[in-house]
Amino acid sequence: MLWRMPYRRLAAVLVVLCLGACGAPEQPGPERLTLNRGLASDPESLDPHKARSTQSGEVLRDIGEGLVGYTPTGAIRPAAAAAWQVSEDGLVYTFALRPDARWSNGDPVLAEHFVFALRRLVDPATAAFYAQSIAPIVNATAITAGARPPAELGVRAPDDHTLVIELERITPYLLGLLTHPSTFPVHPGSVAEHGAAFARPGNLLSNGAYLLEAWEPGSVLRLVRNAHYWNDAATAIDAVNYHVLPQEVTELNRYRAGELHITSNVPPDSFEQVRAERPDELRIAPYLAVYYYGFNLTRPPFAGNRALRQALSMAIDREVLVEKVLGRGEAPAYSWVPPGVADYEPVRLSYADLDAAERHALAETLYREAGYGPDNPAEIELRYNTSDTQRRVALAIRDMWRNVLGVETTLINEEFQVLLANMREAEVTEVFRSSWIGDYNDAHTFLSILESGNPSNMPRYASDEYDSLMQRAASRVDPQRRRFFLEEAERVLLADHPVIPIYFYVSKHLVSPAVRGWQDNVLDYHYSQHLSLATN
Amino acid sequence: MARYILLRVLGAIPTLLLVIVLAFLMVHAAPGGPFDAERVLPPDIEANIARAYHLDEPLPVQLWRYLAGLVQGDLGPSYRYRDHTVAELIGSAFPLSLKLGLLAMICAVTLGVAAGTAAALRHNSLGDRLLMGFAMTGISVPVFVVAPLFVLVFAIHLDWLPAGWSGNPGAGRLVLPVLALALPQVAYIARLTRASMLEVLASDFIRTARAQGLGTAAIVRYHALKPAMLPVLSYMGPAIAAILTGSVVVEEIFGIPGLGQFFVRGALNRDYTLVLGIVIFYAALVILLNLVVDVLYGVIDPRIRQR
Amino acid sequence: MNALPRTFAGLRASRTARVCVVLLALIVLAALVGPLVSPHDYQRADFDRILVPPGSGDAHVFGTDDLGRDLFVRTMLGTRITILVAVVASIVSLVIGVAYGALAGLAGGRVDALMMRFVDTLYALPFIFLVILLMVAFERNFLLIFVAIGAINWLDMARIVRGQTLSLKEREFVQAARLIGVSTPRILLRHIAPNLVGVVIVYLTLTIPQAILVESFLSFLGLGIQEPQTSLGALVDAGVNQMEGAAWMLLIPATLLAVILLCFNFLGDAMRDAVDVRGAR
């Protein structure tokens, strides 16, 4: 008898809890055009100075606006600034801001808001991740290092709608830098009022086409149109939902179930099927990013062993890899800088045009030169992070090395954070997989990371010749001369083989036929304000 | 009983403290930090960030800072979700995980006990074999196979239910995740129930009851079910824990922002505070659940109540 | 009659159990011999034979995977590793769990409470994190997967055994033995242990599938065995992604996995029934 009581009570409690839990359906809202986009992860923050990932950038470009932005095809366009002038020496930029630009509370967007934001960006107390993004501006790096006060940043506002930026050195890609969300304005009053919480839903003021309505971490970010936006009349879509979907397959399933208009990716395993079923919805475009294997140049077997490095690079059949193993339209990489970069012609590896047999024969000769052979195979460790694409590429390359050269490769699959730590320490790594995504459309973003002393120089490549060529390129105003030195630098780099460029990424999206105005571009930026939805 | 519970709660405090310190040391021992990325930061910026998040302090100082915050009920800000506190994230994630877990648990216990009892009563019959075969299938197929299969069949091809979570109003979005989550537990509970029910049914007091002419239904209801539930009850704590962690897969596949997903992502991103917060919350919860189970044990079987 | 011989006697008596034993033996045999007789190598990728369906006359009986590797050899290799993981992990959990649980249950009182608090503490530790740290600290040593899985599962075993022991301790026959002055070790050996066998065996059959599933969960999280080695869990995980395009990559390893689990489960049932004969004696 005793036992029945608690069970009944327990059951009743469970049922009540359950009923309570099942209720509260979400309001679908009134008739308005809502765009549903997939997002691979939550933004870290919508404070432009605490944000870091490409996903943060994607959302920030919808809710904020910098001095300049991109057109749907990826060209620089005026945004918060209507026009600008550059001084003859290329060191002073003067921006004329739009007098009609407004924050989402109706306040005008003033030049001093930009000054405030850029000072905040480099202020050591802010601890912004992208503080280096405006490094060319006078005193920026000194301020970040704590050597000068933020007020000495080379940015001033002579009047409410004029912003002057002074540079320490010539920076042909400055406008590209100023499209980055880290350079967006911040409303000083809102920061004063809410402190660090100013970027939370309800507090966050927006000067872009949309404003943040709600954010459920791990689930969805809801954006609605900003009626105070200066160009609101041109905005077609009323609301944008960014659905946080880290699993590519989950995202694809939601798209197939009609719950998404745009996916952020297409999973490799389903690619063939998607291509067969929805050829018109698949959008593949070159993307400014290189997938590479790096050598740890600080320890054996790769330190001072250029022959072995080159042999390994030559033994990889990049076409086979991109066509048969990946098959999503990636381009085989025979250079370090991706094709499609503005004002630049990538240099190609010397053996790019050889056929497989010749290339393999040369690779074998080099391999023997380095002192290896069938009786004395090279034993190397290849580290990659846990992911399906990484796994496939590593297995395929391991097989190619084994077949062409007889190399014994041990695969070490590590959690991403572990791989990053190992790459940085450069104590246990031999070959490791990494990638680089261009920050702006210029060869400099790729070439600069392999300068000695650059923190992202994972192979620890150190070449005086390369460094001096990069230095010389940095001091040129004339684009032709600058380009010449950059190309020479890439030539030196490719001959040294500190890295094996493997393939260039493509952006991959599924875009519903209802979406209008979608344009592929190399930066893979797709502002929601440029899109519209067909109603039927 | 009240004194017993009080003692148990007091006894849980050192346990919890131990868990906190262990977890703290473990997260910090893992290679890589919360702000590492392929794009390595210049040293100045890195130093600024370490200072802003107190990562430049010696470990004991960080631990002390953390514990001091914890005493005031502050789990700290998340490193990955920089606009959110850990308490907020747990506050939003836990109700979802609880909802999922409870529904899955109800499904599992109801179906599991019913199936297990039915199978035991028809021991070795075709029905027994079919029921147990079904239960075994539940055990034999991993959740990460079942869940995508459900999505493929019910959400994409049949279009009966939504494929995902965000933006889908209504309770329909719960159905597939709950079923996927409950399935293996149904199977475990059915097997446990069957095994212990068989043992109970073969025992002397049941045979006595049977000899007195009691019907099967009455025997099960008044005599057999209670002792037969002991192993099932014993399994409840682990089952709830298993559902909470097992929901990692389901939450991942359906894109549900529950505790499991935050935990795994937190661990992979080295979001120290988020991981610690969830560990502490989870530890407290497990300790509490075990206490409840032990108390229920005492209620069901007074012979083992603490004297 | 002792419990163990009785268990095996029961096995001989049950037809299902015999079928399961034969099936498992066949699977183990195939897993051991298959890779030796097959013309294919488990790690050899063939980029011209990617995703060949089974039985397309290409000597790939089970077809090939997304890198053109022979799926038969890989499945057999995966089976070896999966069974190895499960058996070793279960033995680890059995030994630790039974000893710990019986001791706690028998000791009772303060010692029991303390021992169970320790189990609670371990339960409360996040499993995946423990595993990540283990994998990292020991460079993904394969032995560690066994230890990790066994180290997790013994907790359940300990709790179940302890619960049973507590309940047995209060039973009339144990009370009676105690009353007539039988020593504690003797009670443990003669009265408690034989009565634990049933529940332990049933639970062991639940532990083996659990161990296999934990292994596959690790594979799902990408923390399982290192390529080009494989396990059934890793194969199933890879197969899930190919569910629609190349169903055989999922169906073959998943079926094998299910059959292995079913066999262990039915076997456990048969042993359980055999042990239960005692009740009717």
3D architecture notes:
The complex is a heterotrimer of chains A (536), B (307) and C (281). Chain A is of the alpha+beta class and 536 residues long. Helices cover 31% and strands 20% of the residues of chain A. Chain A has a six-stranded mixed beta sheet with strand order 12-16-11-15-13-14. In chain A, strands 1-10-9-8 form a four-stranded mixed beta sheet, with helices on one face. Chain A has a four-stranded antiparallel beta sheet with strand order 4-5-7-6, with helices on one face. In chain B, 76% of the residues lie in helices and 0% in strands. Chains A and B meet through α1, β10, α7, α13 and β15 of A and α2, α4, α6, α10 and α11 of B.
Give a topology summary:
The complex is a heterotrimer of chains A (536), B (307) and C (281).
Chain A: H1 4-22, E1 34-39, H2 54-63, E2 68-70, E3 76-78, E4 81-86, E5 92-97, H3 111-122, H4 140-144, E6 155-159, E7 162-166, H5 174-177, H6 188-194, E8 210-216, E9 220-225, E10 239-244, H7 248-256, H8 271-277, E11 282-295, H9 306-314, H10 318-326, E12 331-332, H11 356-369, E13 379-385, H12 388-404, E14 408-414, H13 416-425, E15 431-437, H14 444-447, H15 464-474, H16 479-496, E16 499-510, E17 515-516, E18 532-533
Parallel strand pairs in A: 1-10, 13-14, 13-15
Antiparallel strand pairs in A: 2-3, 4-5, 5-7, 6-7, 8-9, 9-10, 11-15, 11-16, 12-16, 17-18
Chain B: H1 2-29, H2 43-52, H3 59-71, H4 86-121, H5 126-140, H6 143-157, H7 172-201, H8 204-211, H9 216-228, H10 230-254, H11 259-269, H12 272-300
Helix pairs in contact in B: 1-12, 4-5, 4-7, 4-10, 4-12, 5-7, 6-7, 6-10, 7-9, 7-10, 10-11, 10-12, 11-12
Chain C: H1 3-13, H2 15-37, H3 71-107, H4 109-124, H5 127-137, H6 142-169, H7 172-179, H8 184-220, H9 232-240, H10 248-280
Helix pairs in contact in C: 1-10, 2-3, 2-10, 3-4, 3-6, 3-8, 3-9, 4-6, 5-6, 6-8, 7-8, 8-9, 8-10, 9-10
